[in-house]
């Protein structure tokens, strides 16, 4: 069963198992979400070694603080993605700040711009990969194959109205990546 289709009951059960200290639960969680965590961390940091370090930090955080996950706020997958984004952005800030020669306002503004850009890119990547397949398929046809809604409708075997609806909803979801606050469930720590 794909991670995005995991029922909330699985999320709560996994949290309870982690809270009891079941190492097997952490292994299952790692198997299910390691590629998501590694991919999001790499999207922010553009460095395999740093992304691997963030991946370790994320799963260490999950292991040490399973009680910070609140199933009422969204799926476990979203909480893990939010934790990844927060830790990756924190690592990027630390790395970039250490690399700055001085602390001039221009350098700090450039750093914040890079951090914002990386954060938005990671949110957009997560949103695109988490949206329902019909929306993602319509967007992929429009973006990568330059199909208009009529062509997308024909390729997808749906009505033109349905193709327009899918494209509109997909774009609305993606537009939330640029919000100053993160999309629901992808904000800071809980």
List the helices and strands and how they pair.
Blueprint: H1 8-19, H2 23-45, H3 48-64, H4 76-99, H5 105-130, H6 133-144, H7 149-156, H8 160-175
Quick take:
The protein is mainly alpha-helical.
- CATH superfamily label of one domain: RNA polymerase sigma factor, region 2, helix turn helix motif
* Share of helix, binned: over 70%
SSE order: HHHHHHHH
Shape-level CATH architecture of one domain: Orthogonal Bundle
Sheet-strand content, in percent, reads: under 5%
Largest sheet: none
Structural class by secondary-structure content = mainly alpha
Family: Belongs to the sigma-70 factor family. ECF subfamily.
GO molecular function, one term: sigma factor activity
Keywords: Sigma factor, Transcription, Transcription regulation
Protein name: RNA polymerase subunit sigma-70
Describe this protein's structure.
This protein is mainly α. The chain is 73% helix and 0% strand. It has helices at residues 8-19, 23-45, 48-64, 76-99, 105-130, 133-144, 149-156, 160-175. It is flat, with a radius of gyration of 19 Å.
What distinguishing features does this structure have?
190 residues; mainly alpha; Rna Polymerase Sigma Factor, Chain: A; 8 helices; disordered C terminus
């Amino acid at each position: 069963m794909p991670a995005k289709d995991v029922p909330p009951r699985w999320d709560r059960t996994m949290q309870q198992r982690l809270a009891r200290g079941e190492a097997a639960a952490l292994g299952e969680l790692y198997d299910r979400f390691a590629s998501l965590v590694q991919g999001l961390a790499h999207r922010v940091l553009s460095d395999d070694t740093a992304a691997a370090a963030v991946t370790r930090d994320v799963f260490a955080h999950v292991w040490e603080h399973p009680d910070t996950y609140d199933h009422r706020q969204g799926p476990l997958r979203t909480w893990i993605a939010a934790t990844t984004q927060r830790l990756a952005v924190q690592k990027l800030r630390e790395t970039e700040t250490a690399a700055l020669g001085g602390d001039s306002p221009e350098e700090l503004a450039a750093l914040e711009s890079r951090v914002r850009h990386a954060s938005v890119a990671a949110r957009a990547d997560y949103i695109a990969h988490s949206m329902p397949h019909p929306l993602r398929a319509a967007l992929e046809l429009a973006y990568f194959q330059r199909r208009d809604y009529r062509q997308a409708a024909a390729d997808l075997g749906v009505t033109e109205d349905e193709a327009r609806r899918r494209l509109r909803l997909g774009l609305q979801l993606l537009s939330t990546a640029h919000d100053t606050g993160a999309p629901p469930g992808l904000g800071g720590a809980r």
